[in-house]
Amino acid sequence: MASREEVIIKKEEIENQKQIMQLVKNINSGYEKYAFVETYGCAQNVNDSERLLGMLDTMGYKKTLDKEKADVILYNTCAVRENAELKVFGNIGALKAIKRAKPHVVIGVCGCMMQQEYIAEKIKKRYKHVDIVFGTHSLYRFPEILYNVLNENKRIIEFKNCDGFIAEDLPIKRNSDISAGISVMYGCNNFCTYCIVPYVRGRERSREIEEVIKEATHLAKSGIKEVTLLGQNVNSYGKDLENYYDFADLIDAVSKIDGIERIRFMTSHPKDLSDKLIDTIANNKKVCKQLHLPIQCGSNKILKIMNRKYTKEEYLEKIMKVKEKIPGITLTTDIIVGFPGEDNEDFEHTLDVLKKVRYDSVFSFIYSKRPGTPAAVMDDVLSPEEKKANFDRMLEVQNVISAEINQTYDGKEYEILVEGESKTNKEFLTGRTDGGKIVNFKGEKELIGKIVKVKIIKAHTWSLSGELV
Ligand code: SAH
Ligand code: SF4
Ligand code: F3S
After folding, report:
1. Contact 206, 240 (CB under 8 A)
2. What one-character-per-residue DSSP string does 96-131 give?
């Protein structure tokens, strides 16, 4: 395991990258340059893309949503399931035409997929129009990579096999002025047997509490109202820090910042959900009453093979504690259907958990084989058709529960942080309750960024409609 000194990128190295950003800016001066960045995967990848856009902005590239207009095209990829990877291959294939028409356009692929050597190699060999390949561990070196490509007109395929770094003080360009994600720790040590994340994101490493506070304070000063503290295993924050602060301490520290009105966090591992953290969610007014607690499967046999380190009973006990201490809390989870070895009896346990917990919503996935993970060589019991049938059954059960829970919101008033105009109807605004439920209602644009009271007039399965009080 790398030492703290090896994990944190030295100030001089960050300074070096900043100087290179100026060099690229000089190359670009006098031209209108644009960058297109497409993101796949989780909130952490979204946050990484904000850093990439921050660096690109410093180098003189304006953000564009139009690929055809871009001088730099970057795909920040996700490796968690095969279909995410296939989509990326399809999309980079389609860039060939752009490269042929405009050879000066720099095409880059980065992120979790590129942290797998065989994939970086495949792109090197078969996608010759891609100029840049780099994985998550090289993100902070993006300015240098881009500079070398522009200057020397050659391809750079970088693969760094290591435990990962923490790079502070890179520029960032945020997607929203109201709500922001802050990565507080990186990587994962859990090695669930189905999951690629520990291989592509490296070992768990926490940012210093002062750095998180600095970032959150800066965000609050710029008008941000809500922060989401991010980590693959966010509630194990601090375990690697010399001055030990746990995740609950971090939340309390962030909540003392003036201007931050709401705090959310993602993702918690059930084994690391402490009583102290439950009390913090219950007692700290700024912490949203919402918990995403992935169970993955309800069968103890399967949980064991998944290496999840809890049983169905232990999980349910934690949930009951949470419900007791925080009545009305919004609960969500992740479920994998069709893990190797799962039979129909195992699957019944998953349905049983859904019925007992009554989640507000469930993110469910059919198991996808990830080369290099232990589960990739395990045998299936169920056929693809049987897995699909179970998956559909689960959705049916959950949709009824989601709709029933949303129905209980009808006629009640909630405080909503207004996040923007509704995407489908410009007359409507959209925002979230403290519990994270999406509410659409009619209102003036001036309300964006404010917390307003809204009465729910109609409940739908996935959202709520309301009117201003
Ligand atoms: N760190 C988080 C999230 C990891 S990835 C956690 O521990 O919960 C997000 C979700 O993707 C996981 O919760 C899991 O449900 C799903 N997932 C991960 N690997 C998968 C695979 N090989 N096949 C299908 N779903 C997978
Ligand atoms: Fe993957 Fe498990 Fe780590 Fe989550 S806790 S990122 S599912 S290995
Ligand atoms: Fe995907 Fe990487 Fe996130 S694999 S889920 S983008 S950490």
Report:
1. yes
2. HHHHHH-TT-EEEEEEGGGGSHHHHHHHHHH-TT--
Distance 55 CA to ligand 2 centre (A): 29
Per-residue pLDDT tens digits for 281-311: 999 999 999 999 999 999 999 999 999 999 9
CB 446 within 8 A of CB 460: no
List the residue whose alpha carbon is closest to atom 5 of ligand 1.
80
Ligand nearest to the CA of 267: 1
pTM (whole model) above 0.90: yes
Contact call for residues 45 and 76 (beta carbons, < 8 A): yes
Tell me how far apart the alpha carbons of residues 12 and 27 are, in angstroms, rounded to a whole number: 23
| SS3 (DSSP) at 411 | coil
Q: What is the atom index within ligand 3 of the atom nearest the CA of 79?
A: 4
Which bound ligand lies closest to the C-alpha atom of 373? Answer: 1
How do residues 315-345 score in pLDDT, each as one tens digit?
A: 999 999 999 999 999 999 999 999 999 999 9
Give the mean model confidence (pLDDT) for residues 117-121: 96
d(CA 26, CA 318): 56
Q: List pLDDT tens digits, range 69-82.
A: 999 999 999 999 99
Residue linked to tokens 């996608």: 127
Question: pLDDT for 144-201, tens place per residue?
Answer: 999 999 999 899 999 999 999 999 999 999 999 999 999 999 999 999 999 999 999 9
Strand order through the sheet with 179-183:
179-183, 226-230, 262-266
Residue nearest to atom 4 of ligand 2 (CA): 232
Taking every pair of C-alpha atoms in the chain, what is the biggest distance, in angstroms?
66
Q: How far apart are CA 218 and CA 220, in angstroms?
A: 5
